[in-house]
Amino acid sequence: LPLLDALAYTHARGVLHGDMKPSNVMLSEEGVRLFDFGLGRAEEGVLPGLAHLSRDRFNAWTPGYAAPELFEGQPLAANADVYGVACVLYELASGKHPFRRLPSIQARNERLDRELQAPRNLPGHGWAALRTALALDAAERTITAAELRDALGGTWMQNMTW
């Protein structure tokens, strides 16, 4: 939940992370830390004058956590960050990546989303929201980080078995 809070906070300020994955999340004595915004960007109109990195000549996305549309050359959007964080949350709740860490385009082509099942350590009321966040079609990924956090509610972490 604190990870979703951090992501919602950055999105509310017009900043996109760009590389949501487990290694960019740390748990410290002060709480969850989200870092490495190297592939991130500020949305249009936020922080005027800030240089924007062009991704036209390279593809640095982490295959198992990047949304399919990023591999297809679409611009980074908040719902791509939501996809990445949903993969991380699914992995935390189930002990395995939702799509066997395959690139999301391959998971989409193989229709692996049809095989997804609710993780046993996820409260039932949160599955629909997490499922939406894991949509391999950007148009179907209609939930924000804040909405996902609200849907999971405050009891999820208390019910986790580690």
Question: What's the topology here?
Answer:
Layout lengths: L1 H11 L2 E2 L8 E4 L2 E4 L6 E2 L25 H4 L6 H17 L9 H6 L17 H7 L11 H8 L3 H4 L3
Antiparallel strand pairs: 1-4, 2-3
Keywords:
4 strands, mainly alpha, two-stranded antiparallel ribbon, 7 helices, disordered C terminus, 162 residues
Structure summary:
The chain has 162 residues and is mainly alpha-helical. The protein contains 7 helices and 4 strands; from the N terminus they run αββββαααααα. Residues 155-162 have low confidence and may be disordered.
Write up what this structure looks like.
The protein has a two-stranded antiparallel sheet with strand order 1-4. The chain has seven helices and four strands, in the order αββββαααααα. With 162 residues, it is mainly alpha-helical. It is 35% helix and 7% strand. The relative contact order is 0.17. The two termini are 16 Å apart. The C terminus is likely disordered.
